[in-house]
Design a protein that fits this description.
This protein has 313 residues and is of the alpha/beta class. The protein is 30% helix and 27% strand. The strands form 3 sheets. Strands 10-9-8-11-12-13-14 form a 7-stranded mixed beta sheet, sandwiched between helices. A 5-stranded parallel beta sheet has the order 1-4-5-6-7, sandwiched between helices. A two-stranded antiparallel ribbon has the order 2-3. β8, α5 and β9 form a beta-alpha-beta unit. α4 crosses α5. The longest helix has 17 residues.
Length: 313
C-alpha cells in the first residue's frame, strides 16, 4: 500500500477519515481553502509522484464549490505526476439532469462527466447514481457501488419480515426497490405518481398489497422530502402499519427536516454519510449509517488490481 495516497476536499472530511481508518493509511496533507476574492486555492503538501491517488469528494451542496474543489484537486495531482487519479464521489451531484426531458434544457450530468475527465481523472468510484446510465457518460472506467448492503442489518431489526413489503416511490426506483426486496426476501409494491414540478409530485395509485404490512420506502436521494412524506401518508391511508425509509443520499434541503418531523406516518429515515448531516439537520427520526467500509474496500481492491464486482451486489 506504499503507492496508495488518499486525499479529501471539504465536502466529506469525516467520511474520508473513516475510509483511511479502514484502509489503515493516513490522509495525505493538502490545502483546500479560498483566496481573498473567493477563488479556490489548492496545494498538495506531500509528494504524490508515481502514486495511485484517490480523491474523496461528494459534489453535494454547495455543489458548485465542491465540484470546483474536486476539479482543481485533480488538476493539481495530474501536474504533480500522480500515476493514476481516481475521483471517489460518494454522492454524484447534477445527476438528476441526465436527459433532455423538456425543450432547451442541458444534460448536466454529461457535462460534469466531461469536466472530470478533462481535468485528469483516470477513474470514477461512486455510489447509487440517480440514473445508472450516467456510467456511460464517462470515457473512463466507472465503479458503481450500491448502499443496500449497508442498510440491510438495520432494516432487518426494524421490519417484520414475515409481513413486510418494499415500496418504490416511483417507477424510476423500481430496480433499486427490487434489489432490497430480493435481499430481504419480501414482496414489492410501487407508487405510481405524476411529477407536477421538480419539487412536487402527485400520488396516483399504489400497485401492490400494503394493508396491514410494514413498509420500507427506498430511493437514491431525498431533497425537500415532499415525495417521501406524501408516499408515507398515502401508504398509511392505505392501511400500512410501520413505515420506514432507506434513502442513500440525504440532501435534506429546504423544509425537509420539518416535513419529516411533522409526518406522523413515517417511523424513521435511514441515510448514509455520503453527505454530511450537520447542525440543525440532525434529528431523532433520521439515522446515519456509514459507507466508509464499503468505499474503503472498493479503494483497496482497485489499488491492488482486484475484482470489485462482488461489491456491486
Amino acid at each position: 500500500m506504499d503507492k496508495l495516497a488518499v486525499l479529501s476536499g471539504n465536502a466529506t472530511p469525516g467520511l474520508a477519515k473513516d475510509i483511511c481508518k479502514y484502509l489503515k493509511v493516513k490522509l495525505h496533507d493538502c490545502l483546500v481553502s479560498r483566496f481573498s476574492e473567493g477563488e479556490i486555492r489548492v496545494k498538495i503538501n506531500e509528494n504524490v509522484r508515481g502514486k495511485d491517488v484517490f480523491v474523496i469528494q461528494s459534489t453535494c451542496p454547495p455543489a458548485n464549490d465542491n465540484l470546483m474543489e474536486l476539479l482543481i484537486m485533480i488538476d493539481a495531482l495530474k501536474r504533480a505526476s500522480a500515476q493514476r487519479i481516481t475521483a471517489v464521489i460518494p454522492f454524484f451531484g447534477y445527476a438528476r439532469q441526465d436527459r433532455k426531458d423538456q425543450p432547451r434544457v442541458p444534460i448536466t450530468a454529461k457535462l460534469v462527466a466531461n469536466l472530470l475527465t478533462v481535468a485528469g481523472a483516470n477513474r470514477i468510484l461512486t455510489m447509487d447514481l440517480h440514473a445508472g446510465q450516467i456510467q456511460g457518460f464517462f470515457d473512463i472506467p466507472v465503479d458503481h457501488l450500491f448502499a443496500v448492503g449497508v442498510f440491510i442489518d438495520q432494516l432487518t431489526s426494524k421490519l417484520d419480515k414475515k409481513n413486510a413489503v418494499v415500496v418504490s416511490p416511483d417507477v424510476g426506483s423500481i430496480k433499486m426497490a427490487r434489489a432490497y426486496a430480493k435481499r430481504l426476501m419480501v414482496d414489492l409494491a410501487i407508487i405510481d405518481k405524476r411529477r407536477i414540478s421538480p419539487e412536487k409530485a402527485e400520488v396516483m395509485h399504489i400497485l401492490g398489497e400494503v394493508e396491514g404490512r410494514d413498509c420500507l420506502i427506498v430511493d437514491d436521494l431525498i431533497a425537500t422530502g415532499s415525495s417521501l412524506v406524501e408516499a408515507a401518508e398515502t401508504l398509511k391511508k392505505a392501511g400500512a402499519k410501520e413505515i420506514w425509509a432507506a434513502i442513500s443520499h440525504g440532501v435534506l434541503s429546504g423544509p425537509a427536516i420539518t416535513r419529516i418531523d411533522k409526518c406522523k406516518a413515517l417511523s424513521g429515515l435511514f441515510i448514509t454519510d455520503s453527505i454530511p448531516l450537520v447542525g440543525e439537520k440532525k434529528h431523532s427520526k433520521v439515522e446515519v449509517l456509514s459507507v466508509a467500509d464499503l468505499l474503503g474496500e472498493a479503494i483497496k481492491r482497485i489499488h491492488q488490481e482486484e475484482s470489485v464486482s462482488s461489491l456491486f451486489d
